[in-house]
Amino acid sequence: MSxxxxxxxxxxxxxxxxxxxxxxxxxxxxxxHEIPGITPQVxxxxxxxxxxxxxxxxxxxxxxxxxxxxxxxxxxxxxRACISKEFSVLAAGAASPITDYLRALxxxxxxxxxxxxxxxxxxxxxGNFALSMFADDSVIAPVLSQPSLPFGLTQKQKSGxxxxxxxxxxxxxxxxxxxxxxxxRFTADMMCPGVRFKKLKExxxxxxxxxxxxxxxxxxxxxxxxxxxxxxxxxxxxxxxPTHEALQRVLAFFHEKLDVSKEQVV
Length: 266
Known about the structure:
By secondary structure, the chain is α/β, with parallel strands linked by helices. It has a single domain, classed as Rossmann fold. The protein contains 8 helices and 8 strands. It has an 8-stranded mixed beta sheet with strand order 1-2-4-3-5-6-7-8, with helices on both faces. Strand 5, helix 4 (129-133) and strand 6 (139-145) form a beta-alpha-beta unit.
């Protein structure tokens, strides 16, 4: 399977090599896909970012690019990620080892495309990766979409941020200098509990821009309580829908931080 219009290459760092898909022009935005992989829904989001004036860079960490979402496919890739040494799914105070590779990819993207820095979107399993990657100076627009690590088996894990203290200190320094971190979640999402966003607010204060979409019973837009993927599977791309508004705010964040001269609306 292939991704329409995307160029495929490979990027290697410290013995790790992954396929990388790239499309668009302008400043770089690194999109780190969710489980089970680069699905058509993830590809759709990437095209929204491209159409808004950016170069999208997507590493393929697991799964088959372009393969349709299914329960079986999701379960298969979920289990693979859980047993992989590259993903520390239960660690509250440490990042997954794969983030070193992703930071190197961000640096390479910035070197190639220029501009003040790159944007990063992590989602679900990779959501908190964007926070750790923000400790690298190449990243200036981090977006945490439904960050789900560590998996919330204990109260400490539910509020955990999946980042080590040294990197968190650097994130705080950057926020104190006026930088921002954006986070998105549905309010009833058990995979991304509300206490995690509360912890982010405690740690980052006004530097954390939180977008929480009501998915409780009886909400005005009929969003199901099981809704999870704000920018992909559960995105309703219709004006006035809260997920559409969330998408627009993410794109506006990239325009603000990455200094794109002409903003386009999706």
